[in-house]
UniProtKB/TrEMBL annotation:
The keyword Transcription applies. This is Response regulator in two-component regulatory system. It comes from the Bacteria. Transmembrane segments: none annotated. It comes from Frankia alni (strain DSM 45986 / CECT 9034 / ACN14a).
Length: 244
């Protein structure tokens, strides 16, 4: 039984979400503020966190940072408004999904299932070898990424997106395809991908305003272009980087 931690200072919202998730077969813990959320997560590590952005004590973003610094955990953020800035803020820090209040508890339950399913599939998938692109080195098994031997500090979703593209050099993907392949979403806001590509460029490109690795394919989406010295020379037969 997957354990879900619901963090929301609105008692009514927390109660409704708790009831729907329990009815769907989940083990549920609840917290009404940031500090208690961290204590609960420490005592009973969750498989997924439903996290409100607006919290007393510590705001949702700070709770997210501290939770994910301890160990990787999928997070669905709740935002109080349908404002794009709220959504992008949650996605930029690495949230797996977001839901805008007021929301359907049934839809939230479906999203919890979807995020947990994708996380389980990712954990069960065989890990490829170390991926290299010039000074960029990504190790999917160790979940590390460095550039010039300096850790990049990628969020969970930034890491997944970068590794996905590095394994498929020269293949152009639409934003919808990337949502499906990396996030496991059959629906969602394509701007999610745009935000993550921008953040990755800031971390891996010499000049993020003129990207040479993660390039835009106008009218399509995005493509990873391997540096010439890496494109063929370091790929061995059967190397997953040759896929696609």
């Amino acid at each position: 039984m997957a354990r879900v931690l619901v963090v929301d200072d609105d008692a009514l919202v927390a109660e409704v979400v708790d009831r729907y998730l329990r009815n769907a077969g989940f083990d549920v813990d609840r917290a009404a503020d940031g500090p208690s959320a961290l204590r609960t997560a420490e005592a009973r590590p969750p498989d997924l966190v439903v996290l409100d952005l607006m919290l007393p004590g510590l705001d949702g973003l700070e709770v997210f940072r501290r939770l994910t610094a301890r160990r990787p955990v999928p997070v669905i953020m709740l935002t109080a408004r349908a404002d794009e800035a709220d959504r992008i803020t949650g996605l930029e820090v690495g949230a797996d999904d977001y839901v805008t209040k007021p929301f359907s508890p049934r839809e939230l339950t479906l999203r919890v299932r979807s995020v947990l399913r994708r996380a389980a599939e990712a954990a069960a998938a065989p890990e490829p070898g170390v991926l290299r692109a010039g000074a960029l080195v990504v190790d999917p098994a160790a979940r590390t990424a460095t550039r010039h031997e300096v850790p990049l500090g990628l969020t969970v979703r930034e890491f997944d997106l970068l590794a996905f593209l590095l394994r498929r050099p020269g293949h152009a993907f639409t934003r919808v395809e990337l949502l499906e392949q990396v996030w496991g979403w059959s629906y969602g806001d394509p701007s999610t991908v745009t935000v993550h590509i921008r953040r990755l460029r800031e971390k891996i490109e010499d000049d993020p305003t003129a990207p040479r690795l993660l390039v835009t394919v106008w009218g399509v989406g995005y493509r990873y272009d391997a540096p010439p010295a890496v494109a063929g020379a370091e790929a061995s037969p059967g190397d997953p980087r040759q896929a696609g």
